[in-house]
Structures are given as structure tokens and as C-alpha cells.
Amino acid sequence: MINVLFVCRGNICRSPMAEALFRYLVKKENLTNQIAVDSAATSLWQIGFPPHEGTLDILKKYKISSDRLIGRQLKRKDFWKFDYIIGMDESNLKNIYRITGKPNHPKIIRLLDLTKYRKDIPDPFYTGDFDETYRLISVGCRALLNKIRSEQNL
């Protein structure tokens, strides 16, 4: 099983959106028996909470399930469990490196570095623009799935 973890600051906006969308793409490609998906936060603020209403609204708009999305914190042991650890922005990457104790490890990737954009995904908790966040996450998730398919011969 290939394990993918999406990480953002609070695990209520970007990373659960990416988790749900990536799970949707994996299911659409009939890869659910080969790829598992989760998400986590680098902070403690929203542990145990469901995603932000804006995230839930955008997932509903695109008919993507939000089942099983509950905020949790990234743990050091997650480094060993997951094959791909995907941060939403540069700050997330620094916190992932700190928490896992694995700075600059190749399995830790900023999502949009897999695309032509090569930038941070803005946090809609602050910007309010869940549509733009979804658009960028969608592009990144499709690129990530292509990367995994290529690297894992799927």
C-alpha cells in the first residue's frame, strides 16, 4: 500500500480538501487498493474538529465526499508510515521537517512544486478564497497522482 499524507497548518482547510480530492481521484482511477490517503496539521489548534465550512462547501459543490475528515496533528512516527508527505506551503514544510526530524527529505514535498506554479497554496482561512485554493489543489493532486503512478508503476 502506498500511503499519502497531506499537511497544512490547522488540518481544517487545505489538507482535508486535498485528502478528499485525492481520495476521489484515487477511487476514480480504481487505485483504492493501492493508495491510502490521510491529512494532518502542524499545529494543535483544530485537533478533533471537522473541516472548515468553506472546505465542506467546496467539496459538496464538486460532489466529493467529506466523510472521515477530522483534524489531527502530524506525529514524528508519520514519517515512517507515509511514502509521500505533502505540504501546502513553505511554512508547512519547515514545520514538517521539525516535527519529523527529517529536514529536506525527498518524500516531503510542497504540492505545487509538482506543477508549473511552484508556489504556496494560499490558506483560505485567511484569504476566504476557497475556489482558488480548490483550483490549485486540484492541479497539484493530479500532478501528484501522475508522479505516484510513474514512480510506483501503477
Automatic annotation (TrEMBL):
Domain Phosphotyrosine protein phosphatase I: 2-147
Transmembrane regions: none
GO molecular function, one term: protein tyrosine phosphatase activity
Known EC number: 3.1.3.48
Assigned keywords, A-Z: Hydrolase, Protein phosphatase
Reaction(s) this enzyme catalyzes, per UniProt: O-phospho-L-tyrosyl-[protein] + H2O = L-tyrosyl-[protein] + phosphate
Listed InterPro entries: LMW_PTPase, Ptyr_pPase, Ptyr_pPase_sf, Tyr_phospatase_low_mol_wt
Root EC class: hydrolase
UniProt similarity note: Belongs to the low molecular weight phosphotyrosine protein phosphatase family.
PANTHER family tied to this protein: LOW MOLECULAR WEIGHT PHOSPHOTYROSINE PROTEIN PHOSPHATASE, LOW MOLECULAR WEIGHT PROTEIN TYROSINE PHOSPHATASE
Protein name per the record: protein-tyrosine-phosphatase
Organism, scientific name: Lederbergia wuyishanensis
